[in-house]
Write a structure and sequence with these properties.
By secondary structure, the protein is an alpha/beta fold. It has a single domain, classed as 3-Layer(aba) Sandwich (Rossmann fold), CATH 3.40.50. Helices cover about 60% and strands about 10% of the residues. It has eight helices and five strands, in the order βαβαααβαβααβα. A five-stranded parallel beta sheet has the order 2-3-1-4-5, sandwiched between helices. The chain is globular and about 40 Å long. Bound molecules: adenosine monophosphate. Adenosine monophosphate (AMP) binds next to α2 and α3.
Length: about 190
């Protein structure tokens, strides 16, 4: 199973990614988490990524693509993977296409979580209090939303036109959203 999970900041991607990956027995690969781990450890990748993350901008494609390529080359990702927060640009879509077709597989589904704007802001403000992420300040949240609308939202149509888009209502309780995702994905033919 090869899946991607999309949605604006605050849509619940990280939370749902864990449940979905567990359900299908595949690793959840979150580019944001990998960047944050590198920032925490002070690696060269972390130092490079941090300046973009703190400004709410995307880390350059070359850096992000290389990191994802290395991660999905690891043995645990051979049977499949769930990408949380990748691809986010058209250049990343092309790169991912290459990575997947190289292995003779295909993308099974691009799941997009839809949540209304008011709810997104509420969730991000709550997360700011709980997790203390440095990019959950009001200005940076706003910038992340703009960057998502400009660079990532157009990808929804790309995946729709390929017939792999699965739109899921991301409003409501966490377990309700999880159940909706499972219901949508359990019907897919496995590759
Ligand atoms: P996330 O945890 O998915 O919200 O990601 C946090 C931050 O990491 C983003 O605001 C970006 O700065 C960076 N990031 C995560 N994934 C990507 C990606 N696919 N392309 C570029 N930057 C990314």
């Amino acid at each position: 199973m090869r899946l991607i999970l999309m949605g604006p900041p605050g849509a619940g991607k990280g939370t749902q990614a864990t449940f979905v990956a567990q359900h299908f027995g595949i690793p959840a690969i979150s580019t944001g988490d990998i960047f944050r781990a590198n920032v925490g450890q002070g690696t060269p990748l972390g130092l490079e990524a941090q300046k973009y993350m703190d400004a709410g901008e995307y880390v350059p494609d070359e850096v992000t693509n290389k990191m994802v390529r290395n991660r999905i080359d690891e043995p645990d990702a051979k049977p499949g993977f769930l990408l949380d927060g990748y691809p986010r640009t058209t250049a990343q879509v092309a790169e991912l296409d290459g990575m997947i077709s190289f292995t003779g597989h295909r993308l099974d589904a691009a799941v997009v979580l839809t949540v209304n704007a008011e709810e997104l802001v509420q969730r991000l403000l709550q997360r700011a209090e709980k997790d203390g992420r440095t990019d959950d300040t009001e200005d940076v949240i706003r910038r992340r939303q703009e960057v998502y609308a400009e660079q990532t939202e157009p990808l929804i149509e790309v995946y729709r036109s390929r017939g792999v888009l699965v739109e899921v209502d991301g409003m409501g309780e966490v377990d309700e959203v999880t159940a909706r995702i499972f219901a949508a994905l359990d019907d897919l033919p496995q590759s």
